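Lab channel / #folding
Pinned by the channel admin:
"Please post every new chain as: sequence first, then the structure tokens as a reply. Keep commentary short and put observations after the output so the thread stays searchable."

First post following the new format, from NK:
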Amino acid sequence: MYKAIIFDLDNTLLDYDRCESDSLLMTGGRHGFEQWERFTWEAFRATFDPINWTYWSERVVRKLTIHQVLEYSFRDTLEKLERDKGEAEALARTYWEHFCAICHFEEGAPELLADLHGSRKLAVVSNGIGEAQRRRTASGGIDHLFDAFVVSDEVGLWKPDRTIFEVALRELGLDRSEVLFVGDSLQDDYAGARNAGIDFCFYNRKRVTLDRGYEPDYVIERIGDIRGVLSGER
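Reply from TO:
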């Protein structure tokens, strides 16, 4: 039925949470975090995570680069933890170096892509950063599998704006009725697919209960279960 499957990337094909955690651990290891007096990763993450999320969420409005997002996140975290904030720029560079090199997959994702490749077109529509998304998929050996690869900072469009999906449709040479979009975010992916008039499969990796008003065309709890959707099962 579908001539192409468009995937979100982070926490759909790639395990973003694990990639981020490992990048922070390696950054801390290189910069000697664990030698700090009374240091714990729990305390660091409890401080860093909300600061980082705020800068990331505001990056478009404030016109921040990813390197500024990271530098300011480390700077504010170090300041709150009463550490030397002058190290923030170096920490940001180290983190980005590690993050762009790491590719942890969602369980079953590489096998699914290998199975689908050749039988229908494959694409990515991501709200991430182009440098990271391209380097990570290359590191994981899956970059060559995609017929379209659309990343928000490269095209200046962000989900749930329908226009970013129209870019992918043009690159695929297909109509919206011929594609299925798979993603894990109700805010960005579900809403984006609805705005674009594209069928949506919700990858419910956290097994959340859907509130009223959310009616994806399909729901799966393992990414490999997309095979059942494509064979006509729900």
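NK: Residues 92 and 171 are 34 Å apart (CA to CA).
TO: also worth noting, The longest helix spans residues 41-57.
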